[in-house]
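so my prof wants the structure for this chain in the tokens format not the other one, which i didnt know existed until like an hour ago. anyway here's the sequence
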Amino acid sequence: MSFIKPILLSVSLTFFFFSLFLGSSSAQTVVKASYWFPASEFPVTDIDSSLFTHLFCAFADLNSQTNQVVVASANQAKFSTFTQTVQQRNPNVKTLLSIGGGIADKTAYASMASNPTSRRSFIDSSIRLARSYGFHGLDLDWEYPSTPTEMSNFGTLIQEWRSAVVAEASSSGRQRLLLAAAVFYSNNYYSVLYPVQAVANSLDWVNLMAYDFYGPGWSRVTGPPAALYDPSNAGPSGDAGVRSWIQAGLPAKKAVLGFPYYGYAWRLSNANSHSYYAPTTGAAISPDGSIGYGPIRKFIADNRATTVYNATVVGDYTYSGTTWIGYDDNQSIVTKVRYAKQRGLLGYFSWHVGADDNSGLSRAASQAWNAAPATASIIRS
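here's what i got, hopefully its the right format
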């Protein structure tokens, strides 16, 4: 009997450490990510995947009749080769199939999440699709559960999703699929609270959409579209969102800070009033005022426009004549990346890679993360 206990102890320790390894094999140490979508007309082959740890392919759709996740026929070829294509430049980059999006029918997601059978259809089909297309994970972009019941159902959905991917990995012998979700910048969606504990327990991380704070479609004055800070503490900001999620119980290492590679253009009411919160007459340049970072750079060059970096909110704007554009340039992006690292967040993501200008913002972000110390030197109280 004397030799049995050491053997059992050795076996137990081996199993323990092996279990730790399996459990940590899907854990992420950093997320440096961006989204790609086909309507951007940016070729997948042009993505410099060496600048990212993760890339999101957007969007798969929800069939409201069958509650199955599907990819539009026009996108199937690009989606099915997405992972293979981006791994040619970076074999270590992980890919996630993103489901939903800002223009998706939110009532279909609410209906699907309300019923165990339809949730199972969604979950099983998403796993099959991710595996058949070679993705490493799945991302849910439901914008947004808007009632307490919908939030509760969202929590149930992601809990069942987690159980399903764990079971699938066990039965298939493959590494577990990653699970993420794009969520409102704050855990408080207009007085409706996210199920933070379910989020923390079920998802590998959440992408905090800390942008679209000001835009011509809903703001009659100019404003920072993606402010990191709001000096008044009355309006939206990335920092306020991060604080709300963490204070509600989300571990910092499950939060990924989002920022835009686009801005919004307004037509000023008065060309002599061109700072934040100046009166406007509506959108400029495009019907909704949205404009990618590349075209913003061209606007600046073509018009010899004035550019301003505002360190108080951490945002940029440019103006020429009566056209005013709020956006994020290199300094804003770098400051936000440093903030994310020094807050102890898992990382950052951008929407979207096709709007960058020769990968300039993505390169600045990646370098900033690598160089930033994990201290609180820039964190404001």
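also thought this was worth mentioning. Residues 148-172 form the longest helix (25 residues).
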